[in-house]
Amino acid sequence: MASSNVSSASSSSPVLAGKVAFVTGGSRGIGAAIVRRLARDGAAVAFSYASSGAPADELVRTIEAEGGRALALKIDSADADALKAGIDRAAGHFGGRIDILVNNAGVLHLGPVEQFSLADFDRTIAVNVRAVFVAIQAALAHMGTGGRIVNISSTNAERMPFAGGSVYAMSKSALTGLVQGLARDLGPRGITVNNVQPGPVDTDMNPASGPMAATMHGFMAIGRHGHADEIAGMVAYLASPEAAFVTGAGLNIDGGFAA
Fold this sequence. Notes:
This protein is α/β, with parallel strands linked by helices. It has one domain: NAD(P)-binding Rossmann-like Domain (Rossmann fold), CATH 3.40.50. It contains 8 helices and 7 strands. It has helices spanning 2-11, 29-40, 53-65, 80-93, 118-140, 166-186, 213-218, 228-239; strands spanning 20-24, 44-49, 70-74, 100-103, 148-152, 192-198, 250-253. A 7-stranded parallel beta sheet has the order 3-2-1-4-5-6-7, sandwiched between helices. It holds the Pfam family adh_short_C2.
């Protein structure tokens, strides 16, 4: 009986109690769902936002009202110095550590290759690829054994079935090589690194009622948009102790888009 009681008491603690997380692009959509889920699971969560100040402040208030801890920081992920400084600030604010890094910030520029501007190309690489590397470097300075790094990639890293998405798909495919290499680099330190690869998700950037919805659903085994909370659930799993043996992976959560 004594053993059972200890187990019960232990299991009642939030799975991420005492952990500190940093989420880039956390004020809206998938990012906000991830911030809410990690906070609900017990982590103190800092998150960045580029322009959505009001939603960011409201998210902090909501988490704090529920007894959690949160910090919102205005950062353009393309600004490497600002991103590094923000991660350092978050670590200092929450006791000098980062246990979980979620690279969610991203941009989507579509268009025919003949008309695709170098400015849009450079912005795509700066936010979708370089910022991921910058954030990982910065977070590793505060991350110990058992750390978790999760990048929000895309099912388009594996399948781009329509025209105009070549640069976006390339930027997400780049994360596959990065994660596979980093898994080797960081495994000896007990740090896992993985990609979560969503398909169409119902957010203001890609609404389920949008003009491309029916076309996208036609490519899928489950013909609907995903929900942001579903993506957050997979991130929460990868951030948890249960996922200690998962690293170097690209995990599709796409309704069969890439099947």
